[in-house]
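Below is how a single chain appears once it has passed through the pipeline. First comes the sequence as given, then the structure the pipeline wrote out for it. We keep one example in the README because the format questions we get most often are answered faster by looking than by reading.
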Amino acid sequence: MEYFKEYEAMYAEAIAKGYSATDEEIEGYLEEMKASIFSDTTDETTQAQYREMIGQFDSEEDYWNYEKEVYRKQLPIEKMVRDLESGYACRTALTFSNLCSPFL
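Resulting structure:
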């Protein structure tokens, strides 16, 4: 339960700071995810695990609709965390680099 509270708090913070995810970003992310999961380079065990997860929904479409809602929140959080990590790296290790100027 605590995890969900923290997750929702992170999402609220990301949105308050102006982070978002467009429908196109979400769809693109899910298409990449689908391609990766069911590619020839993904082992059969991993594919079987995903098929099992998908099978717990009424349809494959329902599964991907669920994932779409998950990533509607997850992607803004990931963007915020990525920027926070970049800013931290700039403040601690790369303070003399021009690459860090937006974060200083």
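The radius of gyration is 18 Å.

See the next section for the split statistics.
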